Fold this protein.
Amino acid sequence: MTPFLAIVKLTCRSAIRSNVFRFLLFLLIVCVILVPNTLKGDGTPQGFLQVMLEYSTAFVALILSTSVIWLACSEFCTDIENGQLHMIFVKPISRITVWFGKFFGVFLIHLVLLVISFSFIYGFLMWQYSRQKFSPVERVKMENEVFAGRRAFTPDLGDMNLKVNQELTRRIETAKKLGEALPDLSGASRRKFIQAIYMEILAGMGEVKPGEMKVWTYSGLPKEYSGPVYIGYRVYSGNLGSRNQKIGEGVWAIRYNQKIYDENAKGKDGKPVVKDVREVPLQLPPEQILTSAYKEFPVPGDILIYNGTASIGFANLAQGKGGESLHFQVTESPRLLLKETSFLNNYCRAMFSVAMGIFALGLIASSFAAFLSMPTAVFITLSYVVTGLFSSYLITSIESAGSGEGMAFLDAVGSWLASLMISLLIPVQNFFVSGLLSTGTLIEFSYLMRLLFFNIILKGLPLCLLGLWLYWRRETALAMKQ
Amino acid sequence: MADSIKKAPEVIISSVGLVKEFRDFWNRPKAKAVNDLDFEVREGEVIGLLGPNGSGKSTTVKMLLGLLYPTAGRLTVFGKSPRDVDTKRLIGYLPEDSYLYKYLTAYETLDFFASLFNLSALERRKRSEQLLEMVGLSHAKNRPVGEFSKGMSRRIGLAQAMINDPSLLILDEPTSGLDPLGCREVKDLIHLLKKRGKTVIVTSHLLSDIEDVCDRVIILYGGRIRAQGTLHELLTIEGTDRITTPQLQPEVMEKVLAILRASLSEDQFRIDHPRMSLEEFFLDVVNKAQSESVETYGARSGGQIADYLSHDDQAAAAKELLKTLTGTADRKKEEPAPAAVEAAPAIDTSKLDVLSDETLKPRAEELSSAAKESEVDYSEANEKLKNILSGSKKE
């Protein structure tokens, strides 16, 4: 253990003396101190805190990510190139221990910086929250919307494959009845046609036409929940994804399952026995809605939730010629947000997630630096990260693109390549959860474990083993600068 | 008699048909740095690797250390692959350049390298302090090695190579960058290591260094061994004699010349005055300056050999050595010393004092058969040291 700790200590000391690291450390301090003090937010108190939280943590994660890549590559490569590592390799310490010592040293110093930075941000946030003159209503709102760890539930979509197949069959039959040309259902055209139907169904589930009401149901909720449930939504005017900001008018309704108790009977625990349940729609006051903007409002959980399910509806009050449909992206909203854990707990989960991200980046960089020169290792590591990032976007965009004549082959190749890349590479962006944290969304433990297992263990470990093997095999004297 | 029944020293390094070929990115042969090298190094030998630049010395040393891998042939160190981690516990290495961490202080550097040998904190501190004292850098122990002169860097490099009290010491250009005083100390150290039965491999361009310290040399050229053997075998000029005497009276000289002229022609012999070497003269001057306590900020003359480097000497052998040395001193009075040797610099005998330290008990586990064999070799070592101290060292 003494040799391992000596390498760890040496790596930390070396890091502190690296000019690039010092510069990044300076940036980190600037970011931690200046960013919260210069951001203004959207003018609302919770907006201010949300922006401060999101930007500060995101900047810290970004700087530490850059730093860990640089430092890992530097620690491995420069030591070999300058011959210093030869002095270590001729001592009775295995190269595997040296690799882990260096990697752990690099990770440790970043972990310490991460904990210090996040602690400072948390302290500053709490200080701001306590010193600002917020009204009691604002405080309650902030405690529910920002300083919380809320689990999000999106509308049940049902069996989408079944719905798509039913719609496809219906369209074919309709075309046959009307004697119209049947759609081209061969190869890539079929995939595209089915994709278009899928998107149409999704859009249909989220579209609320003028004067109509749409109802969404939710399942998997807790059996009993007495706290406030926040309904969060973003509505678009005209078409889905429109950035036009307009004022729409609508009204929300919730399903309330009224329990009717049997007055003559009592349960084993002495509680009254439910004789019947009557479904009662409760309508909230009509309101004006700013489109493309995210909004939330609370409803009592014990009213909304019944037997682990809930149902809410929205009516578009626009009428007449100028009335436009309002659209919800049902894969995201309207969503139900239930407070699951404290803000501190959620904050620690976010910190753990970022730490895993830094660990993953360090692992990638150390693995490449084990057998490559410094610039090549940095380049390959950055390429790895960017490829992982764009592969996700490529898959999403190809899947969401419904048109584009002549692009089918390229789409197929792109999609295949992106899928391959995603199955091999660690999508590092998934570790950085500042957005979730700032909106008070619960960072699920299962999500963290999935990141750990699928990304770090399944994808990171083989890369690490490859790096270790090459490091162990390497004729280090050949890499030394003469 | 004892020598005749003594087992041959154990083979420390064995190289059979060793080849190292460098290849380019496309795996095409680029250069054959080492070509079919066969040699053995035995326990207790001080061996010199000689050769011009590009002859394969450094490549061979790097292969011995497991930093390069042979393309063909077999190379073993202590009977194992040079890449074997445990073998490296027995090896000390001083590279040609100082590949040290510039931001670490001299003390931290030694402490770090000692940590790699899994030594306890107490042992690390003890050894580091002793080595710093030994290489004359105690006064600079808290200075970063990046600020050191080349000579000081070599000294700290030498100290780190000794941190594990190695059985095999590989010194690449050990005197490079050192002043003559430092060179002499390194040479003295090599002599002492040999005396303790350690194996030393020295590569150097300074042939005088090799000549001074090595028992045997291997001369490489173009990756092949061109000559190898003991210095005596290689350097003795057959059919020539040399007689050295104190300055003779003119009449005695005339008699000698007459005898010589009777048997030899004028061009077959010559008579001149022996000169001390520049190194010896320089050391004499510096020793005088040191005795006058002149201040210097650079490396100082090394102190006593680190305790842990001498503690496995058998106390008896140490006593024997001292007795021998005392006996030498007596004989010195009786026999007139040659003029050239009278001017030789005084060896720091304090380095030998440690050998008589009664508190230094040998470690039971280190009394291996190999150590016992090397005990026999002490007589030879003692003889050599005796010669140095009595001034009969060969020029």
In short: The longest helix of chain A spans residues 45-81.
